[in-house]
UniProtKB/TrEMBL annotation:
PANTHER family: SULFUR CARRIER PROTEIN CYSO (PTHR38031:SF1), SULFUR CARRIER PROTEIN SLR0821-RELATED (PTHR38031). This is Molybdopterin converting factor small subunit. It comes from the Bacteria. InterPro entries: Beta-grasp_dom_sf, Mopterin_synth/thiamin_S_b, Sulfur_Carrier/Prot_Modifier, ThiS/MoaD-like.
Length: 91
């Protein structure tokens, strides 16, 4: 299943500057594995050393925050858009 993945500016160094890339997988976990295979190193910026989504990274499948769905097991229907959004903090 082919999906599109929106890449935040801070991670575009891994995608050669592309703001959006395609990947395949039936779940978010598979999509992120494919994304990391195609763009080595990007997975470590999204997932922590235990394999979970980093605390300050938000990932949406369509309009759904995966933390309120099935996390990495969230289904990724063909054609859906996945958004990776780093949290912003400041004062």
């Amino acid at each position: 299943m082919s999906v599109s993945v929106r890449i935040p500016t801070i991670l575009r160094t891994y995608t050669g500057g592309s703001a959006e890339v395609t990947a395949e997988g039936e779940t978010l976990r598979e999509v992120l594995q494919k994304l990391d295979a195609d763009h080595p190193g990007i997975g470590a910026r999204i997932l922590d050393e235990t394999g979970k989504i980093r605390r300050f990274v938000n990932v949406y499948v369509g309009d759904e925050d995966v933390r309120f769905a099935d996390n990495l097991d969230t289904a990724t229907p063909s054609g859906v858009q996945i958004s990776i959004i780093p949290a912003v903090a400041g004062g």
